[in-house]
Amino acid sequence: MERQWKLYSLAVSVVLGVASTAMGQGGTYTAIDFPGSTQTLAWAINKTGDIVGSYTTAGVTHAFKLTGGEFTTIDYPGAASTDARGINNRGDISGIYTDGNNVSHGFLLSGGKFQPLDFPDAASTQAWGVGPSGEVVGTYTGSGVGHGFKWAGNEYVTIDPPGSTGATATGINGLGEVSGICMISGIVHGFLLNDGEYTIFDVPGSSYTNSTALTAHGDIIGRYVAANGTGYGYLLRDRIFRTIAYPGASFTGSASMNESGDIVGRYQNAGSAALHAFLLRGLTSAPRVAAVTHSADGTPVTAANPGTPGEVLSLAASGLGSTEPVVDPGQPFPSSPAAVVSADVEVRVNGKPAEVLSAAGVPGSLGEYRVDFRLPINTLTGSAGLQLSVGMAVDTSVKLIVR
Q: Which one, of 361, 362, 265, lies nearest residue 322 by Cα?
């Protein structure tokens, strides 16, 4: 009996604006390059911080494992090239190798032994993510079409979202959820497979979205192409997309996140064809509003001291991300020049946009920001909902009194 799958869209709570990092101050990017390589890619990171990926030197691609700052090269025996794509918390590594005929095969490296993975009768196979118990997901080619698959207990199962003309399964967690990439009607989308149901999703406003991994808690990592053609990474958590952008890069692709919130991926500088790996640590998840005050005298907005339509109010907030000029993690914001928030900041009152007059770090503080905005003149009296959005992250927890 053929199993019936469900296809539905994931609801999102924010709209894509100008794509810029919405990661909070304190997030630190570290570039990773294998010594002497012309290109380095990081694809996965586990709980202990082990990173796997690939590097290219003298025109040949090799897999690597990075532990405690030391690289170990991984080459499938006799292969023309090797690429590591996944690592679980017990150290199993999944990936891809090509033979002398340039045909791709999957592999699982466990306990120091390689297990070749080839989907039955497929023209080629690629292994991507590896689950906590050694399950492997990936893609295989049959009759010229790519299909996702899961391998467990030496059994292969095809994973294809309905209507797709090409699919790759990229990650699997302990809950059995599978992330992936699919093409439907010529457009590339991310997907999540959970308990037999497919969710197809896109970063709002993007022309391309993929998903390269998911965490034990179901957070999804991937990349997207914005309307301006620039590629960014993203983290999808609690139905909110958060953009990841390596500072100054012309392209960023995030690939994996571990339980500590450390993220790895790759980036490219403008004018260069080479890709470099990165590690992002100290991520702040979202903006938070601590208080709403009257801008004129700094007193709190309360029922006894309400806001007035047309008045300028101030938000005391955290997690608004990087600034211009850049302030290094752990350093206080300067008084001059003002540390202006570099991401787009939006304030809405009862769902209607308010004029944002300024958004900057509070001089002398560590990670505290002030946002001045004008309360819309047509705001109804009573309790009003306030929403602060920075890049693609949002806080909707605040109410204020208007009279």
A: 361
pLDDT at 16: 22
Phi, psi of 9 (to 5 degrees): -95, 145
The structure tokens 């170990």 sit at: 72
pLDDT at residue number 18: 24
CB burial readout 318-348, b (16+ within 10 A) else e: bbbbbbeeebeeeeebeeeebbebbbbbbbb
State the pLDDT at residue 319.
78
Domain range annotation of the chain: 6-281, 288-402
Burial class, 130, CB count within 10 angstroms (exposed 0-12 / middle 13-18 / buried 19+): buried
Fold assignment, 6-281: Neuraminidase (2.120.10)
Just give the CATH number of 288-402: 2.60.40
Q: What is the phi/psi pair of residue 344, to 5°?
A: -65, 130
Q: Beta strands of 39-112 (E only): which ranges?
A: 39-45, 51-57, 60-67, 70-74, 81-87, 93-98, 104-110
| Among the listed residues 146, 219, 138, 227, the one whose alpha carbon sits nearest the alpha carbon of residue 184 | 146
How many Å apart are CA 71 and CA 35, to the nearest integer? 9
Q: What is the pLDDT of residues 38-50, one digit of tens each?
A: 999 999 999 999 9
SS3 212: coil
Where does residue 230 fall: left (phi above 0), alpha (psi -120 to 50 degrees), or beta otherwise?
Answer: beta
Distance CA 167, CA 116 (A): 21
Sign of the alpha-carbon torsion through 164, 169, 171, 176? positive
**pTM score, whole prediction:** 0.69
Query: Is pLDDT of 283 > 70?
Result: no
